[in-house]
Design a protein that fits this description.
- This protein has 3 domains: about 160 residues, Frizzled cysteine-rich domain (Orthogonal Bundle), CATH 1.10.2000.10; about 350 residues, Aminopeptidase (3-Layer(aba) Sandwich); about 80 residues, Immunoglobulin-like.
- About 30% of the residues lie in helices and about 15% in strands.
- The chain is an alpha/beta fold.
- The longest helix is centred in the middle third of the chain and has 19 residues.
- InterPro entries: CarboxyPept-like_regulatory, CARBOXYPEPT_ZN_1, CARBOXYPEPT_ZN_2, Frizzled_dom, Frizzled_dom_sf, Peptidase_M14, Peptidase_M14_domain.
- One of its GO terms (cellular component) is extracellular space.
C-alpha cells in the first residue's frame, strides 16, 4: 500500500521531466508570441536568402529562420498578421512613420544573418521609433504592435546589434540637402481622404500637436459615423476668459467636398506651422479657440465619393451656369434630408415680431412644434454643439458657386424668392463676407467666372435672401405656439426648411456666413492644391477677423462674472449674452458705439467706446453691475427668455442620437475600429494584440 502511494508522485515527476517543454507562456498565446515548435523539432539554423516582398530594401540579402518570433520559414512569416500589418501600414497611418515602421518590423521578421547567426536590431532604434510614432497608432486607436516590443525582441548596442533605419536616414539626409530654402516646410498630401482616412488624419494631427489640439465628437450621423471636431487653442478642451471661439464647418452637403478637404488641410497646416514657429499661426492659436468640423455629412460623402470619377466630365465644361455634373447623389444625409433645410424656422418669428419693442428678437427659442417634424441626427448634434459653446463667428463651406452669402437667407416676404432681407447686423455681416472674399485669390475679381451668376458686381458677396430664398411654406397658426401644439397636425404640416446661418444668428450670439467655394462641387484631385492656394489666406484672415469689435466681462460688485447678462449696442437691435464666466464678444465695425449691459436684478450701465479703423484687436469694455431689489413691475421682456430658450428636445425624442449601442443584456457594445476589416477578412487568426484595452 505504501509503495503504491509513493509510486504516484514519482510517476508524475518523471512525466513532467520527460514531457516536451512548452516554449510559450500561457498569457503570450493571446498576444501572438507563441510558436508551435517543440524542443525536439529544432534543427541547426543556417543563413538563407531574404525573399520577403515588403522587406526587400533592408540593405542586406541573407536572413535566418526560425526568426525572432519563432516563424520557421518564409511562408510562415508571410502568412502571419505581423507581415500583413507591415503590408498595409502605409495606408493605415496615411504615410506617417510608415517607412520606419515597415523597416523596423521587417528587421524583426527577417533579421540579418552572418555566419549562421542572427543579428538583432538595435533597441535604441526601436525606442526612438516608438517615441516618434506612438501618436500615429493612438490616433487610429491601435495598440503598439507586440513584435515591436523594444525590450523583448531588440538588442543593446554593446551586443552587436544593427540599425535597420541607417539606409533610410542616409537617403533622407541627401534629399534634405538638395532642397532649396524657398520650398515650404509644411508638407500636405493633396488627395481626397475617405471617412476613415479623415478620422485618422485628424486624430494623428491632434496627437502630434497635443499641446494645442484635441479631437472630440459632437454626435453621430444617421449611419453611426462620428461627427468629429478638431480644436486648436493654447489650452485644449477649455474655454478661456475673453478668448473668442470660432467654428468652421464643411461638407454639410455630402457631394460638396472641397470645403471638407480644405478644412482637413487647414488642420494639418495649423499644427505644422505652429510647431515650426510661424508667428502668425502661433498668434492665431494662442488667442483664439478654433473648432473645425470637416464633415457634417459623412454618410452623404460616402455616397457621393462612390459615384464620382476622379476627373470632370469634359462634355459639360463649356456649359453656362452651374456645372451640372450629375453629382447630386450624396447631397442629403442617409435619411434623404437636406441638412441645410432642416433647422428651426426662427426667421419668420423674427419678421412677425420685429416691430414690437416688447419682444426680444435675439436668442429666439426653438418652437416646440419643430420637434414634431423630421430632425436629422446631424442637425440635432450641430444644434446642441452650437448651444453648448459661446461661438462668436462661423463659416460654413459649400460648393456650386463662387460667392460668400450672409443672412438672412429667408426672405422677409414669404412669397418673394429674391428680396434683399438684411439683419440688424447688415454692416458687420458684409464686412465678414468681404474679409473672406477679398482675401480669396479670385472671388472678388471682376473677370472671374461666376458659374453663370453676376456676383462680381458685389465684389463676390451677396445677401442670401437676395440670391435665392428658402421658404418652408405656410405654417399653421396652431403650430406656431411655443408650447403644447397638436403633435399630429404639426408633424403633417411643419416643414423644416430653414438654414443653419439664420439659426446661428437668431438663436445664439454666433454670426455665420456661407462660403461657396467654386462651380465644381467635386473637383479632381489635380485641383485640390490650387484650391488650397486660393483659399488658404482667406481662411486665415477669417480666423483673425474674430478679433474685431469689443469684448469684456460683466461682473457684480463682488467681482463675480454674471452669466446670461445682456450687452446691447445702440442702433443695432440684436443683443448678445454673456457666457458662463460673464465674458462677452460683440462684433461691430470701427466707429463710436454706446454699449449697455443689463441683467435681471441688477442695475443698468452704459458706456461709450470709440474703435479706430487701424485697431487690429478687439477693444475691451468691462461692466460692473450693482444688485437691485426685485421690483414687481420690472420689464421682464427685456431679458432673454431663459426658460423657453433652455427647452431643447422637450419631449426627449432625439436624445438617443449619439448614444452608445446597448445589447439586450444591457451591456454597451464595443465596436471594432475601422481598420479591423483589414485583418478579419484575411482568413488568418484575428490579431487581438492590436486592440487597445
Amino acid at each position: 500500500m505504501h509503495l503504491e502511494v509513493l509510486a504516484l508522485p514519482l510517476f508524475l515527476a518523471w512525466s513532467c521531466l520527460c514531457a516536451p517543454q512548452q516554449l510559450c507562456h500561457p498569457g503570450d498565446e493571446f498576444l501572438g508570441r507563441c510558436s508551435s515548435r517543440s524542443a525536439h523539432d529544432e534543427t541547426p539554423a543556417t543563413c538563407t536568402e531574404l525573399n520577403l516582398g515588403y522587406c526587400n530594401d533592408l540593405g542586406y540579402s541573407a536572413t535566418i529562420f526560425p526568426n525572432i518570433l519563432g516563424h520557421r520559414s518564409r511562408l510562415e512569416a508571410e502568412s502571419g498578421a505581423e507581415y500583413l500589418l507591415l503590408s498595409v501600414i502605409h495606408g493605415l497611418l496615411n504615410g506617417e512613420c510608415s517607412p520606419e515602421i515597415r523597416l523596423v518590423g521587417c528587421s524583426v521578421l527577417a533579421s540579418p544573418c552572418r555566419d549562421s547567426k542572427m543579428i538583432k536590431p538595435c533597441r535604441s532604434t526601436c525606442e526612438a521609433l516608438r517615441k516618434d510614432c506612438m501618436h500615429a497608432f493612438e490616433a487610429i486607436e491601435m495598440a503598439w504592435p507586440y513584435f515591436l516590443d523594444c525590450d523583448r525582441f531588440f538588442a543593446a548596442n554593446e551586443e552587436g546589434c544593427f540599425d535597420p533605419l541607417s539606409g533610410l536616414k542616409a537617403r533622407q539626409e541627401v534629399a534634405l540637402s538638395s532642397l532649396s530654402p524657398e520650398e515650404p516646410s509644411t508638407i500636405i498630401q493633396f488627395i481626397y481622404a475617405s471617412n476613415a482616412q479623415m478620422y485618422s488624419l485628424l486624430k494623428r494631427t491632434a496627437a502630434k500637436c497635443s499641446h494645442i489640439s484635441h479631437v472630440y465628437s459632437i454626435g453621430r450621423s444617421t449611419e453611426g459615423r462620428d461627427l468629429l471636431v478638431i480644436e486648436f487653442t493654447d489650452n485644449p478642451g477649455h474655454h478661456e476668459l475673453l478668448e473668442p471661439e470660432i467654428k468652421l464647418i464643411g461638407n454639410m452637403h455630402g457631394n460638396e467636398v472641397l470645403g471638407r478637404q480644405l478644412l482637413i488641410y487647414l488642420a494639418q497646416y495649423l499644427c505644422s506651422e505652429y510647431t515650426l514657429g510661424n508667428q502668425r499661426i502661433q498668434s492665431i492659436i494662442n488667442n483664439t479657440r478654433i473648432h473645425i468640423l470637416a464633415s457634417m455629412n459623412p454618410d452623404g460623402y460616402e455616397v457621393a465619393a462612390s459615384e464620382v470619377e476622379e476627373s470632370n466630365d469634359p462634355e459639360l465644361s463649356d456649359q453656362e451656369g452651374p456645372l451640372l455634373n450629375g453629382w447630386t447623389s450624396g447631397r442629403a444625409n442617409a435619411q434623404n434630408i437636406d441638412l441645410n433645410r432642416n433647422f428651426p424656422d426662427l426667421t419668420s418669428i423674427f419678421y412677425r415680431n420685429r416691430r414690437s419693442r416688447h419682444y426680444r428678437i435675439d436668442h429666439i427659442p426653438i418652437p416646440d412644434s419643430y420637434w414634431f417634424g423630421k430632425v436629422a441626427p446631424e442637425t440635432y448634434a450641430v444644434m446642441k454643439w452650437i448651444r453648448s459653446l459661446p461661438f462668436v463667428q462661423s463659416a460654413s463651406l459649400h460648393g456650386g458657386e463662387l460667392v460668400v452669402s450672409y443672412p438672412f437667407d429667408f426672405s422677409r416676404h414669404p412669397h418673394e424668392e429674391k428680396m434683399f432681407s438684411p439683419t440688424p447686423d447688415e454692416q458687420i455681416f458684409k464686412q465678414l463676407a468681404r474679409t473672406y472674399a477679398d482675401a480669396h485669390a479670385t472671388m472678388s475679381n471682376n473677370d472671374t467666372d461666376r458659374c453663370g451668376a453676376s456676383f462680381y458686381r458685389n465684389r463676390g458677396i451677396i445677401n442670401g435672401a437676395l440670391w435665392y430664398s428658402f421658404a418652408g411654406g405656410e405654417i399653421p397658426s396652431k403650430c406656431r405656439t411655443f408650447t403644447n401644439p397638436n403633435p399630429y397636425t404639426c408633424s403633417q404640416h411643419y416643414l423644416n426648411t430653414f438654414r443653419m446661418s439664420d439659426f446661428n444668428y437668431l438663436h445664439t450670439n454666433c454670426m455665420e456666413i456661407t462660403v461657396e467655394l467654386g462651380c465644381d462641387k467635386f473637383p479632381s484631385e489635380a485641383e485640390l492644391y490650387p484650391e488650397w492656394k486660393r483659399n488658404k489666406e482667406a481662411l486665415l484672415s477669417f480666423l483673425e477677423s474674430v478679433h474685431r469689435g469689443v469684448k469684456g466681462v460683466v461682473r457684480d460688485t463682488n467681482g463675480n462674472g454674471i452669466k446670461g447678462a445682456t450687452v446691447s449696442v445702440r442702433g443695432i437691435r440684436k443683443d448678445v449674452t454673456t457666457a458662463e464666466d460673464g465674458d462677452y464678444w460683440r462684433l461691430v465695425n470701427p466707429g463710436t458705439h454706446i454699449l449697455t449691459a443689463t441683467a435681471k436684478g441688477y442695475s443698468k450701465v452704459s458706456k461709450r467706446v470709440y474703435l479706430p479703423h487701424n485697431l487690429n484687436k478687439a477693444g475691451q469694455v468691462n461692466f460692473v453691475l450693482e444688485k437691485l431689489p426685485v421690483e414687481p413691475d420690472i420689464d421682464d421682456h427685456l431679458f432673454p427668455m431663459a426658460d423657453s430658450w433652455d427647452r431643447f428636445d422637450p419631449y426627449n425624442q432625439f436624445e438617443r442620437h449619439g448614444e452608445p449601442v446597448v445589447t439586450e443584456e444591457g451591456i454597451e457594445r464595443q465596436e471594432k475600429p475601422w481598420w479591423w476589416n483589414y485583418f478579419s477578412q484575411s482568413g488568418m487568426s484575428s490579431p487581438n494584440w492590436l486592440l487597445k484595452n
